[in-house]
């Protein structure tokens, strides 16, 4: 049933809009206690707005709030118990009361949709997990359930100054919201959204098992074929899920593959800072990714109106498979321009490897994933049915751990550079996952050594060489952490 209502947004705007209550995600009844208008209020949560009325499904609800960063939610506490929720739109605020249990349920339902205020009321900041030009990643502890989370703290001023920075942030939030709504065991989940005086906060799962890159660097041998199957199956199942929403990740690489525990079966795909819906065209950043992992069709784009598809992620996954099986980078040159050119040309010779290094099944699988022509590349659903994932008894008996190759340069580097990174994560720690705890390197970061500016020309930042920041230069870094920590823990 379609009815009319008023919209309240950025002040009080009385604009008639149609309301379809069949699209309601969640509904509840709270109480307004102010003398004027005192009584029950019926709250309806939709994907893009919130309706509030004095009776169920009113023809003209008392309020209709558009969900964006201008509409904020704050929670009032009595000791450790929630007592009310306040919707704040500009200078206007609307407070409603309920029981702690009822408000906790509402908080959970609203968590992925509306930006909440006063993160310090719910979380304690513990340590820095990584830092970039536009964001800092913190480990948080929830004050009520004592669970640990990771929060991506994004500087509001810096992303507003960056071209398309705010738009890219909203795309990242929307991508994580869609994927977290439906949930998948191989996708890092978004937990809540907050906004402070200086930062946006994306509260996510904390992956304690480290990144795939960190695991590779710690090993003295390559992963066994059985372990590689476990890793690649989960990676492809995660991609199958992402691609079912016609979303491209566009920045798959070992440091964006996380593990929730020490078990390889706990894999999570993370960092959706460059994720893009194929349906949203033109793309925010048409030319993006990481040198050595990016699909050739992305590198060959020369227009901001370029189009490509989800199989760009299959190519990146194929490069990861190659590194796991062979133990060396697929496109490796000291000069980044030369590496990008090799990446673009995509001339791969599997015949140079012996049968012991790559058997026919493995060569076939990689050829299906690393085809330069995206139309010849298999999709994740088809790849999961490949013979590589059907393990015979003979394969199990013959599997051994091969020693690392002498030229396994990808594991010797302290970081792998990324170009066209998410504008607010341009120098995030590279050898640690965004949401991975590493107490021994809490305040030491490794900036990237190059950046490819989005558009058609390549520009490299020669000043930000790959290095560890000396302790004597960490004063500003620690100070910036304390500013964010103070905002959370004040």
UniProtKB/TrEMBL annotation:
GO cellular component: cytoplasm; nucleus
Any one biological process term the GO annotation gives: mitotic DNA damage checkpoint signaling
Binding site for ATP: 152
GO molecular function term, any single one: protein serine/threonine kinase activity
Keyword Phosphoprotein: no
One Pfam entry name: Pkinase
Residue ranges occupied by any Protein kinase domain in the UniProt entry: 123-389
This protein's record includes keyword ATP-binding: yes
Keywords: ATP-binding, Kinase, Nucleotide-binding, Serine/threonine-protein kinase, Transferase
Family: Belongs to the protein kinase superfamily.
Protein's name in the database: Protein kinase domain-containing protein
Organism: Paramecium tetraurelia
Origin organism lineage: Eukaryota, Sar, Alveolata, Ciliophora, Intramacronucleata
């Amino acid at each position: 049933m379609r009815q009319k209502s008023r919209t309240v947004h950025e002040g009080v705007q009385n604009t008639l809009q149609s309301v379809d209550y069949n699209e309601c995600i969640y509904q509840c009844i709270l109480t307004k206690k102010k003398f004027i208008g005192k009584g029950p209020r019926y709250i309806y949560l939709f994907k893009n707005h919130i309706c509030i009325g004095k009776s169920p499904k009113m023809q003209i609800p008392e309020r209709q709030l558009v969900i964006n960063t201008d509409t904020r939610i704050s929670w009032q506490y009595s000791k450790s118990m929630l007592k009310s929720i306040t919707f704040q739109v500009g200078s206007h605020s609307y407070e409603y009361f309920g029981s702690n249990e009822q408000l906790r349920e509402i908080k959970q339902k609203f968590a992925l949709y509306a930006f909440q205020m006063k993160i310090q009321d719910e979380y304690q900041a513990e340590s820095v997990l990584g830092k970039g030009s536009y964001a800092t990643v913190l480990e948080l502890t929830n004050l009520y359930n004592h669970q640990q989370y990771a929060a991506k703290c994004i500087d509001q001023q810096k992303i507003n100054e960056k071209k398309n920075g705010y738009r890219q942030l909203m795309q990242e939030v929307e991508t994580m919201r869609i994927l977290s709504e439906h949930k998948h065991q191989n996708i890092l989940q978004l937990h809540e959204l907050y906004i402070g005086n200086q930062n946006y906060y994306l509260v996510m799962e904390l992956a304690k098992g480290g990144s795939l890159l960190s695991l590779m660097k710690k090993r003295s041998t390559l992963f066994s074929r059985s372990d590689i199957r476990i890793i690649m199956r989960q990676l492809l199942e995660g991609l199958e899920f992402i691609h079912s929403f016609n979303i491209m990740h566009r920045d798959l690489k070992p440091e964006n593959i996380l593990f929730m525990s020490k078990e390889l079966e706990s894999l999570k795909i993370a960092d959706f800072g460059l994720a893009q819906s194929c349906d949203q065209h033109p793309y925010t950043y048409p030319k993006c990714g990481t040198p050595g992992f990016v699909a050739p069709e992305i590198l060959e784009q020369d227009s901001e109106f370029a189009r490509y598809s989800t199989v760009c992620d299959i190519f990146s996954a194929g490069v990861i498979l190659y590194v796991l099986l062979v133990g060396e980078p697929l496109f490796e040159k000291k000069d980044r321009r030369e590496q990008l050119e090799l990446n673009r040309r995509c001339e791969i010779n599997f015949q140079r490897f012996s049968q012991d290094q790559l058997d026919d099944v493995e060569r076939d699988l990689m050829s299906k994933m690393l085809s330069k022509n995206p139309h010849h590349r298999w999709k994740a659903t088809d790849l999961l049915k490949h013979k590589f994932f059907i393990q015979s008894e003979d394969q199990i008996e013959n599997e051994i751990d091969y020693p690392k190759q002498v030229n396994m340069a990808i594991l010797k580097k302290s970081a792998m550079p990324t170009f066209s990174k998410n504008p607010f994560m341009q120098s995030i720690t590279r050898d640690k996952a965004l949401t991975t705890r590493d107490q021994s390197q809490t305040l030491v970061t490794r900036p990237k050594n190059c950046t490819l500016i989005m558009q058609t020309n390549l520009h490299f930042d020669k000043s930000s060489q790959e290095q560890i920041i000396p302790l004597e230069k960490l004063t500003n870094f620690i100070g910036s952490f304390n500013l964010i920590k103070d905002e959370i823990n004040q």
